[in-house]
Amino acid sequence: MGSVERPCRDLTRVLVANRGEIAVRLIATCKKLGIRALAVYVVDDADSPHVRAADESFLLEGHGSQGYLSTEEIVRICQRNGVQGVLPGYGFLSENSDFAAALHAAGILFIGPSATTLRDFGLKDRARELAVRAKVPVVPGTPILAGFDQARRAAIEIGYPVMVKATAGGGGMGLQVCRHVDELRRAVDVVKSRGQALFQNDGFFIEKFVESGRHIEAQVFGNGQGDVLFFGERECSVQRRHQKVIEEAPSPYVLKNPSLRKRLESASCALAKSVKYKSAGTIEYLVDDVSGEFYFLEVNTRLQVEHGITELCYDIDLVELMLLQAEEELRGRGGLSAGAMSSFSREGPKGHAIEVRVYAENPAKNYQPAPGLFQNVHFPTGQGIRTDTWIGTGSFVSSLFDPLLAKVLVHSQNRDHAVEKMVATLTQTKLQGPPTNLDFLIQVLNCGDFVTGRTTTDLLDTRFEYKASAIEILEPGTATTVQDWPGRVGVPNGVPTAGPMDSLSFRAANILVGNEEGVEGLEITLLGPKIKFHAGAVIALCGAPFSFKINGRPASLWASHAIPANTEIQIGQTPVGARAYLGIRGGLPNVATYLGSKSTTPSLEWGGYQGRRLLAGDFLFIDSGVATSAPPRPFELDRSAIPEFSHEWQIAALPGPWFSNEFLTTKGQEHLYTATYKVSYNSSRTGIRLEGPPPTWGRRDGGEGGSHPSNMVGFGCTVGSVSFTGDSGIILPVDGPNQTGFIVTQVVGGSDLWKLGQLRPGDSLTFVPATWAQTLLQEQKLGEFVSSIRSQVKSGVARKTEEALIAGLLCPQRPTKYGDGILATVQGEKDRPRVVLRQAGERAISCLFGPGTFDLGIRARIQHVANTIRNDPPLGLGKHPVAENCSLLVHFDPHQTTQDTVVQTILALNKAVPDVRASRIPSRIIHLPGVFDAKECQETNERYMLSQRSKAAYLPDSIDFIRRSNGLKTREQVKESYFEIPLLINAVGWMMGLPIYVQVDPRRRLVVPKTNPSRTFTKAGCLGTGGGTSSIYPNDSPGGYQLWGATIPGICWDTYGQKPGFTPERPWLFEAFDQVIFHSVNRAEFDAAINAFKAGRYHIQIEQSDFDMAAYNALIEQTREEVARMKKVQEECTERELALERVLFAEWKADVDRAAEAKEKEKKCRASMVPDAALVEVPATMISSVWKVEVSVGDIIPANRTVVVLEAMKMEIAVHAPSGAAEYKVANISREPGERVETGDVLVLLQKLP
């Protein structure tokens, strides 16, 4: 844009009274001129870019769009903060004469036209009068009319079609086209009521509607003294619902009829001069496409949305001109001088510019707004490309505001080149999130009429048809998510692998439709979705035997289907297994990649579509070109090639890292491979919980890890780890954590991980022992099976599959010998600790250094080995080993190296570690605000007491429990052990960059037992301690640490890396050996820090430093005796607390058992009752718990009404009244929320009504 390139000297503080892209654009020009820009925002906009871009920002009291309309509040903010002028932009208060007058009365400039001009041109009838007076042609029409009768007579006189127009407002909101009297009656009512509601003015008038017209507007700028500049015309004829979509400068019509520009200039300047117009303004005209006559429509007394294309063609910055005009007004000169104005005069446009408005709206659904999260945003840059926007990756578009996302502008030497450049620019634009009109815009730009310049206002309504390439979710099912394979493998710091739970079925579905095996598709759990395909596609459904219909007709699974546009598919339920996968040829291209994968992790709100399960109304784009270009022939696998699922599973599992006599008795080890476990209803993608007897433990407790023998000092773990949390078993699947504080006894072999995806509540499973070599052989067989599917699809001939191959996949062979989990042991010597290498599946080795207790010297040695691997990974080793406490988890690729080779490599790396006792380790010092005994902790504990356990030694006050467990006298001593002192980050991982830390000074290290059972919910930002380590809860999540404070929620992980201190490639804050210091602040300061962080305006204080191991070891020696005495006190006090805890736990358990017994008696009593033939039983459809009861006794309900919502596998499952009668009366409710139910248990009794 052109610029005078001189800063304003007197105008130094300007408030921008707007939001979104225009606020960002206005602030940029203020800064260019050296003006301090102030912003206002509502709480819904706290993280909007204009808030961050401004030099100062002020919170408005209101919500949504209404918050930006408070004249009194904005004027008050201006007065209190030395504001000299207000830039209103467009919309909101930009044409509000009362606002301009209020600013003037307060001695503040309204940077725009005068209040009188705003008032006159704001009323369309008055504007029409002024146009007639200036001899500007107007459309045949009327003055203000009183009502329908006058309108009817006027319409007859003018001749249909006519437009009913509100005198107040603009932008097409108060405009109705009528072709006969019935439409006229409705239009008058609508325009009057809308005008009254929006502008407190129900005035209206009628004008002739020009059928084949163009919307062409003139850009003017006046100095308020009668001098006016003309900056050419823009054409804005391409509109939907009277809202502009595409604008051009110059007008393609004027290009063919060049004499029109002079006529437009003459009329426009005459009108502007007649009122001594000041600042920027636009005069809109309707041009008859046939006759070339033009008619005045209205004056927009503000900056237009599309002003940018004029700036590109005339090399001018209109906002800069407005600010220069305002400065001259501030100096008392009335405005820019005639000489200054002439320096900005231009002969005519140079080249051609096009602007498109990009909206978060769905053109296939009548342009309905489409709010949501944009997971990836990219606008191309380059010569002749400009984008005015407010969104970026991670922006959430609210339904509270206008859905305009961006204005994309291009400039080139002529129109043809400009059109080509715009199509190329939009094609390269990435807006991955909710639906936008991006594809719609490309189709309009490519349509014949637009290319030839036949852009009349009826183009979109009469000569263009949008063809959506998308799927629409009509019914979502219980849990339908986007997944790809293999997911996020090898991403560090608490990033779950994600991907399909059953990768075998997923890969098969992709092969059947002609995709690569890993292309994103839909994972369907328990109850499937109903989906409409707006474009043709090739699909396949593989997995459990769900019912499957295409346009109401049964369809085969494990088969490909070519379907036409507007096809609906319905995926129902499955009697066995849990999941199926819908492959779509070409995948889902508009789903964003996050950390290398499109997979959804719903528990963390990552990846996939909107970071969640799909919902009704979701609209996902497909690539119909790929989907329908040379599709594979319809193909169905032979039944012999389809795995048959059952309710009984055999799953191959290798002995895990702690499968040894130190942790499990011989009997306990045998038990793990002979016991039958039942899958709990409380299972999910983050953890498959098992019901069954625990193993026999080989030790009394967990040492530093905790009081139960299953407790461990935290360590890294892999997908498929079989763990015991207390006496309860759990398998950690694809969304599970990568670190744990509980024992891992076995690890499911990679060849059997797919089975975890088909486990459903109530299924039974047995672990079959496996060796490393046997697991790889089994994996090879799995690969052969997948290859056989690929070859069959390629040949188009279905073949029978060997029965032995399928049987081998489902029933792994039991080896004669499998050993324990120990791979190698090297005894310690001098300064080198003992090292034990342990098996952690076929792709990882867990290395335990020293006696299994935390020692910072050992931790430094482990970090040295980890850094060596990370910086220069030996052949086959993963780049990101997991280091925590006294352990190191090393990943490797068994197709590149062997387990034995990795063992020797690790031992060699350990041997090469130099003496670390005097080393200096890079260590940033991170300062964070914190609140001791925060309300977040109190609320979390209260929720735990209400929903899980009512009495415990650590309830109701966990801080007092910490105090007592450590023999401290006051709560202040607890606080002093966590605040204003350095805490060393020992490990980062688990989930979302969660840090595990300890006090650097051993005299400050507190120990405390964890909760039992663990909490199902902990508020994000809570600070807690368990055993001898502490952590920050990065998100709302389960946990068992005793809580003592809170810091900023979300500080561990910024998902899209947009906040200060984070990047998209490094969304985590902490690294191992960082130090964190919590500074105690009051609640008001803390809340302000939270708000600033949410808005992206909080700057984390970080110092670059080193951790001095020599100084640390000196401290250890100096305090050794004092620390030994402290530990003795801690052990004694903790034992007393544990004794009390055992008593309280027994009391609580007895209360629970009594309540359960009473419920069981009631259940048996109900079961013994003679069934009433008049009553209809509504049974539970699966093993689950009752989440909600949606009816009450006595309610009259229709058929198919939801009566109860069950919860299983972290999903809600609705149970409906049957369809056997029109209505029912609820006679009895047999189950309460929280009760566990088996398949077939009666939930509700209904009485049929006649």
Number of domains: 9
**Average residue pLDDT:** 93
Report strand order across the widest sheet. Answer: 13-12-9-10-11-14-21-19
Query: What's the total helix number?
Result: 29
The CATH topology of the largest domain:
Cyclophilin
Instruction: Assign an overall shape.
Output: globular
Please state the structural category: alpha+beta
Tell me roughly what share of residues is in helical segments.
25-40%
Largest sheet at a glance?
Answer: 8 strands, antiparallel
Number of DSSP E strands: 67
Q: Please tell me how large the radius of gyration is.
A: 35 Å
Percent strand:
25-35%
Distance between the termini: 76 Å
- Unreliable stretches covering 5 or more consecutive residues: none
CATH superfamily of the largest domain: Cyclophilin-like
What is the annotated CATH architecture of the largest domain? Beta Barrel
CATH class (first level) name of the largest domain:
Mainly Beta
Region (Disordered): 688-708
Organism: Cladophialophora immunda
Domain Biotin carboxylation: 10-465
InterPro entries: ATP-grasp, BC-like_N, Biotin_BS, Biotin_carboxylase_complex, Biotin_carboxylation_dom, Biotin_COase_C, Biotin_lipoyl, CPAse_ATP-bd
